[in-house]
Design brief:
By secondary structure, the chain is mainly alpha-helical. It has two domains: about 120 residues, no CATH class; about 70 residues, no CATH class. It contains eight helices and three strands; from the N terminus they run H-H-H-H-H-E-E-E-H-H-H. Strands 1-3-2 form a three-stranded mixed sheet. Strand 2 and strand 3 form a beta hairpin.
């Protein structure tokens, strides 16, 4: 098995320098879209690489569930394999599957809980939570997008600062930044 088969697994290590360059030279909107696309393509390529390593690497191992044609001597000669890499790819793929499942399930659970917690009039775009800790965040919900802010934050901000904070959070909602974060996760 050639060294190039491992390239999609090593390529994500270049994400940090690419992100730094994008931050310095691109508009934030463009950089966000570019980095989200690069992250999703790298994740997909790495996962496919692991799957191919598993299939090809375990093709010659006795007891594999692949068709008998994979055991043909001509196929063995044409398809290089590495049993160690193939066997190592199996738990790596299991980890990828578990992590992706956890991210998607957690995303849906958090959104459902947040929607239930913030039930109320649909015309309100701001929800005030009684908490002394100052924080605010954007809560996507389709037609029920909300800005959530605590009483602690409202107490320390002046009128113009509040308007700036609300505008900032609404900009997150308008640009659908939660989608970029989900893809990156």
């Amino acid at each position: 098995m050639g060294v190039f088969v491992f390239l999609p697994l090593v390529l994500p290590l270049t994400a940090w320098p690419v992100a730094r360059l994008a931050q310095q030279h691109l508009h934030p909107r463009t950089a966000t879209r570019l980095l989200t696309a690069v992250a999703s393509v790298m994740a997909l390529c790495s996962t496919l690489c692991l799957a191919l390593l598993m299939v090809v690497g375990t093709a010659q191992v006795p007891g594999n569930p692949l068709p008998d044609g994979w055991s043909d001597p001509e196929v063995r000669a044409a398809v290089p394999f590495d049993g160690v890499a193939g066997r190592a790819a199996i738990p790596a793929l299991a980890v990828v599957l578990v992590v992706c499942t956890r991210v998607v399930v957690r995303h849906h659970l958090v959104r459902r809980r947040a929607r239930r917690a913030l039930t109320g009039p649909r015309d309100r775009s701001v929800a005030v939570v009684p908490d002394t800790v100052p924080y605010a965040y954007a809560l996507p919900g389709g037609d029920r997008d909300r800005v959530v802010v605590t009483t602690g934050l409202l107490a320390v901000l002046t009128g113009p600062e509040r308007r700036a904070r609300f505008a900032h959070e609404r900009a997150h909602l308008a640009a659908r930044h939660h989608r970029h974060l989900l893809v990156a996760q």
